[in-house]
Amino acid sequence: MQNAPLSPRNLLIVHAAELVTVSGRHAKRGSEMAEIGIIEDGAVFAANGTIRFVGKTPDVWDRVKAEGFNPADTLVLDATGRCVLPGFVDPHTHLVFAGYRADEFAARLAGAKYLDILAAGGGILSTVKATRAADRQLLIRETLPRLDTLLSFGVTTVEIKSGYGLDVETELRQLDVCAALSRRHPVRIVPTFLGAHALPPEWRARGDAYIDFLCENLLPEIADRGLAQFCDVFCETGVFSIEQSRKLLCRAAALGMGVKLHADEMTPLGGAALAAELKAVSADHLLHASDEGIAAMAEAGVVAVLLPITAFGLREPYARARAMIDAGCAVALATDCNPGSAFSESIPLLIALAAVHLDLTPAEIVSALTLNAAAALGMAEEIGSLDPGKQADMIILQHPSHGFLPYHLGVNTVDTVIRSGRLVLKGQTPVSSTWT
Q1: Residue-wise pLDDT tens digits, 122-131
Q2: Which pTM was predicted?
Q3: DSSP track, 38-99
Q4: Is CATH 3.20.20.140 correct for 88-375?
Q5: Does domain 10-86+384-430 match CATH 3.40.50.1400?
């Protein structure tokens, strides 16, 4: 059978100083995180948004020409002196919200504790009040610039949680906003339901009843409408217990949703072990995860999503990333962008903290922000590496090596962003203002 002719909307990147493939279709665990598959003078060819060929530039050129190369159908980018990587994935954010909490940040600088602020009716509940009062269009307008910023840092896929409504109307509105934004913005959006983010004022001292309400009313509607791929819960002392979290997540799983946890962030409650028990896709934060919890996650294949910007902002101890890797865990990184504990979309800050405070190597950071982050969203078969058959999500750095990501401290080194084979950012300038 003859090779099919190349389709329109093809993309060919050639002569990359480093083409970093991060090759794989499942999370890299333990020492595997250092294996990122560097090809010098590398090239990648994509057709109709899907990667077809990856390798040395002369070899890829030969394969493309053998398929009937048509310059009119192909955008060719010369990456001489540049590093090419899979697009970054941010697997934990709270981007859709209204209301800011700069006053609380100042209070924390003066010594106030996060959980004390929440117990006094501030924190998450402050944002809940503002978000409940915001209409759909306001939430869209407020969120679009945050997505633009993430895109400028090389993020091609982002997870966005609800959790600032804690009632039927607003939780559904937040998830509907995610769906609307995914239709108009280049960054791919993965929605997560986080109705158990805090106990709303109208349910004060009735945590069990609130979990029952979520299980019996809101979760079935979200599942029926396909508004969220995952269910998450803030499993924490003073928020939701292990038993309450287990009940909610088991109900979500029964409805066909993936499960995630905010686990062991402020106290060693046992969220990591619960994540392993439930075979959650990920457990996130993990600042106080026990050795036993870490070992259980490694055994169960739960991705450990670490959020060092949050630890930095809260002046909390950093998660024990090296212990997790040594135990055989797959570690991913995320911004946790939210209006309270980590109001930052900064991938450069995230990378700097991961290198300096989590003791991750440049190669491990790349794995954590690409393939492992994709695995934390159940998407390692589709994105996160430069493998044939995957979506052509790629970034081109200003520098010749991935080693510049942590080395150029806190500075954005991304020049070009490609999403599903389409050029969406070049020289930090958007190529198009629309995405369809």
Answers
A1: 888 889 999 9
A2: 0.95
A3: EETTEEEEEETTEEEEEEEHHHHHHHHHHT---GGGEEEEE-TT-EEEEPEEE---------
A4: yes
A5: no
